[in-house]
Amino acid sequence: MNRFLSLTPALLLLFAGTAAALDSDQNQPIELSAGQADMSNVTGVGVYTEDVVLVQGTMRITGDKMTVYTSPAGELVKAVVEGKPATYRQLPEGEQEYVHAEAPRMEYTAEPPRLITLMDGAVLTQGKNRFQGETIRYRVDEDQVLAQGGKDRVNITFYPNQKSGADSE
User: Fold this and answer.
1) Which of 43, 65, 119, 131 has the least C-beta neighbours within 10 A?
2) Is residue 129 within 8 Å of residue 18, measured between CB atoms?
3) To which H or E segment does residue 45 belong?
């Protein structure tokens, strides 16, 4: 039985303070490296293989194969990634800890609403907080995690914010 979890505002505190990704990231150049590249400037579609790394600002996406879609202006529209695992990392605005995600398959949509879809066994973490499920959708701009368990249940581990000694007295 599929289990689908849409987090309520109270549960969103799991990623206490997780905010939208850095706005400045979208204005940064896209840097791509791979063992092989097949790119069309006409269609804006590139297929990259062999240890692919895409970096834009604090965002880093890696995989074994990545299909990248860009707009006529050269802006990132979408990246479809396969890997063992495919990974995503980005620093949310005003945060000290990166959001990390990994799955065998991943789709990143850069146009609003920015969305990361992790498939076939996914993990999303920030600090010690962790989501695990068959499919995870992370709406970056809305700071919302949707997790589907598939055959197994969704597993969530979160840690309350630690209060300093003066706050706890």
Assistant:
1) 43
2) no
3) strand 45-56
pTM more than 0.85: no
Six-digit token pair at 163? Answer: 């209060």
Answer for the pair 101, 87: CB distance below 8 angstroms, yes or no: yes
DSSP 106: E
Greatest C-alpha distance within the chain:
64
What architecture (CATH level 2) is domain 4-157?
Sandwich (2.60)
Rounded CA-CA distance 2/18 in Å is: 27
d(CA 23, CA 47): 26
Residue 83 structure tokens: 């890997």
The pLDDT of residue 64: 98
| Other C-beta atoms lying within 10 Å of the C-beta of residue 77 | 14
pLDDT at 135 over 90: yes
Instruction: Give me the residue label for tokens 């969530």.
Output: 156
pLDDT single digits (tens) 76-107: 899 999 999 999 999 887 788 899 999 999 99
**65: confidence class by pLDDT, cuts 50, 70, 90:** very high
Q: What are phi and psi of 106, to 5 degrees?
A: -145, 145
The tokens describing 129, both together, are: 């907080």
Contact between 35 and 50 under an 8 Å Cβ cutoff? The reply is: yes
